[in-house]
TrEMBL record, chains A, B:
Residues of the Nicotinate phosphoribosyltransferase C-terminal domain: 367-476
Catalytic activity: 5-phospho-alpha-D-ribose 1-diphosphate + nicotinate + ATP + H2O = nicotinate beta-D-ribonucleotide + ADP + phosphate + diphosphate
GO molecular function, one term: nicotinate phosphoribosyltransferase activity
EC number of the protein: 6.3.4.21
Root EC class: ligase
Domain Nicotinate/nicotinamide phosphoribosyltransferase: 158-329
Location of the Nicotinate phosphoribosyltransferase N-terminal domain: 13-137
Pfam families cross-referenced by the UniProt entry: NAPRTase (PF04095), NAPRTase_C (PF17956), NAPRTase_N (PF17767)
Pathway annotation: Cofactor biosynthesis; NAD(+) biosynthesis; nicotinate D-ribonucleotide from nicotinate: step 1/1
Protein name: Nicotinate phosphoribosyltransferase
Function according to Swiss-Prot or TrEMBL: Catalyzes the first step in the biosynthesis of NAD from nicotinic acid, the ATP-dependent synthesis of beta-nicotinate D-ribonucleotide from nicotinate and 5-phospho-D-ribose 1-phosphate.
Biological processes, Gene Ontology terms: NAD+ biosynthetic process via the salvage pathway
Listed GO CC annotations: cytosol
Length: 486, 486
């Protein structure tokens, strides 16, 4: 049987139960086809970073394109005995009819701005809540984390080695895809190469070394089979006393006579800073200054930064569990909130979710985002969330202001603007072509390069401006003042 | 198209690339059919807990039963141009022939004891490394975390609500299964109900409340459709001034006249301790002392414990991201290491992995585990890891000792013993029948009840004894002394 990539998988029933009870409820109340607008947005950047990276759109599209309820799904729902026949018939004949806008994969995104907008019959827009969040949350989390690690390595390659510690199968497969978008050079995960074209790499585990009578023999046997790009694992017994000397011996006695330059050694445990420096000297003195040292051992962006400060002689890193789970902050907290309902005359009634937890108050209305760039150097200056049909004239100065500390204003001149949300589905029809993975990865790298260094630092990054247009701010504040917080 | 549950999914290509290079290498070196023994074990209990819970065996079995390489898989591998034809033919005709032993799902497990053992041709045993780890690591992580949260709630129900923040699709679906084994009462995830029978529950989101002209109207409309077990979400605008009064009004004006008792209210934001106590008084005074209060808002075991210390009036909890990702410690660090190679005469040569990182040194040899229980009260006393064929006589005193601080000894009398590892596959044939999910859940609850309270506390739990038999300890120490650590 062929593996089912997410392209072919029907994940329609991956919904929260309440989405189905609500959908049935809307239909029973006769408002199932009211046009609603939902925003996906997030409130907090993982790891206290200055920006997040958006990913997962291709899989969201696959899901929406495959939305359909099987006969068994319908019978399962019928067996719950709380859904009406009309609703079950609706699901059995389900045809996706929503409009979807999204930012592109690889785009830097910020809290409290809509990164996906869904407009359509409430019964449909509600049903896709869980999968929209799940898909975007996961990949955005891993892309964001991978990019932190990639930046810490200052140009050295990062391979994603975390499948075995991923939170189940898709987390490994799609996590490797997300990590690649964030700048990793490859993955250990073969399935991710098969399905998405993420380059799969890998050489040997300790078991290979243990299977032979001696470490030298294990290296020799490996090199005979894989003389090209030969990398050996040197920490099975003792890196300095055994692993590196045996590697050098094998390079001289096996690879060079075969006509191949060795590629590298890998250290997977112990004091990487100390061991890599010792190994570097040994390799250099043996005439192998071109042989690379790869390190792996529960690394993350902070350990890599620290290794480089210590002048560790590492040319590339393999990063596992801390990347694939974003261990230090493993949740991307995207939410999906009702923002507006369309009236019969085509106008919108904005909706807001109030909360005693101030951060949980939403931005109401059907919206869009403009990103402002400095016309001289291309750098991103600020995002402005506006009503959907607001137009910003990039020939005139534009004043942005902080939505909370409203006296903090800045008038922008000499800028270019770009609408970040682009149409993906129009009335259920896909109108967007997903770029190739390599192109997404390049776009991501370019967009990150347009952010100020102050936004990119790990400690206390500058908070990038995400402001509301004057019109939107007024609407929100009028709505807030209607509720009594006393 | 029908959704593919893990039962039907072919995940054969979910391997690390180095497993394939090694497998091809073993074959090319003529040692592909050497019988090797691999252990899966872990080194650290998540969250500094006193025990972990083993889960995922059913999915591991599904994977092993579906192991097969498709024509496209073979062609993909051929295109890498480093694998020999004989190896590709071997994969094309792959037939799983290993023996597998495992502890049962729901069993408390401890560091440095084998929880899965694979014995078979090295070429095969090596290939299943990633999936064995990935499958068991993920579900054991979530079951362990769920059980902590369940225990913190002291009998109050915990619903798993985390799908939207899970690390991709399987993490949501199988995470809900794992959480149920750990003691949760249900999940929001419909797919997990469909595929595994985890009870799916859920009522309404804020969007339901926002869709109607007033909060009261939203509650009324909901109750008309779902009068049974009716739970309303009271924090869309203001819990005390709006949500609870509207709920009480609806109970009186809609549910009671229809002949139904209301079931509950849910609070999803704000100060749960304060709000639940206020709401409790309001409900009691209105004659609804039987109406339950459910709380959800980024909860975990510590927050729940703290809420109960504050005497919060919460009857059940919905727990999302902190459970489904095991946020505070999102990695279950299971590893898969070569432990022995079988010789032609049937004996075993033990194998060890040395490391400058002491914790990374493995326990060599083909092994098994005995768990000792106090015969009088049934409580678990210790585990002893022995050679595979060692027999412990439960009629004689047995002395266990700490494998590092060897002077720490304890002679056990009045005990019963149980072998934890049971046969799952024999020469590739499944010989184990997976229990029903409900039975796994009950078994788990029972086994946890047999642990001392000191092992179960969150802070500085007692370290449960996992000792090596005298024979095994001697073999390990002889091997260690052969290597020079100077």
């Amino acid at each position: 049987m062929e593996f089912q990539g997410s392209k072919d998988r029907n994940l329609t029933m991956l919904v929260d139960f309440y989405e189905i009870t609500m959908a049935n409820g809307y239909l029973e109340q006769g408002i199932g086809d009211r046009i609603a607008v939902f925003d996906m947005f997030f409130r907090k950047i993982p790891d206290g970073g200055g920006f997040a990276l958006f990913a997962g759109l291709e899989q969201l599209i696959d899901y929406l394109n495959n939305l359909s309820f099987t006969h068994d799904d319908i019978e399962y729902l019928r067996s719950r005995k709380i859904f009406c026949d009309e609703f079950l018939d609706y699901l059995a004949n389900f045809k996706f009819e929503c409009d979807v806008w999204s930012v592109q994969e690889g785009t830097p995104v910020f809290p409290n701005e809509p990164i996906v907008i869904v407009r359509g019959p409430i019964i449909q827009a509600q049903l896709i809540e869980t999968m929209t969040l799940l898909t975007i949350n996961h990949q955005s989390l891993v892309t964001t984390k991978a990019n932190r690690i990639v930046r810490a390595a200052q140009g050295r390659g990062i391979s994603e080695f975390g499948s075995r510690r991923a939170q189940s199968y898709d987390a490994a497969i799609l996590g490797a895809r997300a990590a690649y978008i964030g700048g990793c050079t490859g993955t250990a995960c073969v399935m991710s190469d098969r399905l998405y074209g993420v380059p799969a790499v890998g050489t040997m585990a300790h078991s290979w070394v243990q299977m032979f009578d001696s470490e030298y023999d294990a290296f020799k046997k490996y090199a005979e089979i894989y003389p090209e790009n030969c990398i050996v694992l040197v920490d099975t017994y003792n890196v300095i006393k055994s692993g590196v000397p045996n590697a050098i011996k094998m390079f001289n006695e096996v690879l060079l006579p075969m006509g191949y330059r060795p590629k590298g050694i890998r250290i997977d445990s112990g004091d990487i800073a100390y061991l890599s420096k010792k190994a570097r000297v040994m390799l250099d003195e043996a005439g192998f200054s071109d042989v690379e040292i790869c390190a792996s051992n529960s690394l993350d962006e902070y350990l890599i930064r620290d290794l480089l400060i210590q002048d560790a002689k590492v040319d590339s890193f393999g990063v596992g569990e801390n990347l694939i789970t974003s261990k230090s902050d493993p949740v991307f907290g995207g939410v999906y909130k009702l923002a507006a309902i369309q009236n019969d005359d085509g106008s919108y009634t904005p909706k807001i979710k109030i909360s005693e937890t101030i951060e949980k108050i939403t931005n109401p209305h059907f919206k869009t985002i403009y990103r402002f760039y400095n016309k001289s150097n291309g750098q991103a200056i600020a995002d402005c969330v506006t009503l959907f049909d607001e137009v910003i004239d990039d020939n005139k100065p534009y004043t942005i202001f902080d939505p909370v500390a409203t006296w903090k204003k800045k008038t922008l001149t000499n800028f270019t603007i770009r609408k970040l949300l682009i149409p993906i589905f129009e009335k259920g029809k896909l109108v967007y072509e997903c770029p190739a993975l390599e192109d997404i990865r390049s776009y991501c790298e370019e967009q990150v390069s347009l952010l100020w260094d102050e936004v990119k630092r790990f400690e206390f990054p500058h908070r990038y401006y995400v402001d509301l247009s004057d019109k939107l701010w007024k609407i929100k504040n009028e709505m807030l003042s209607k509720y009594n917080f006393g």
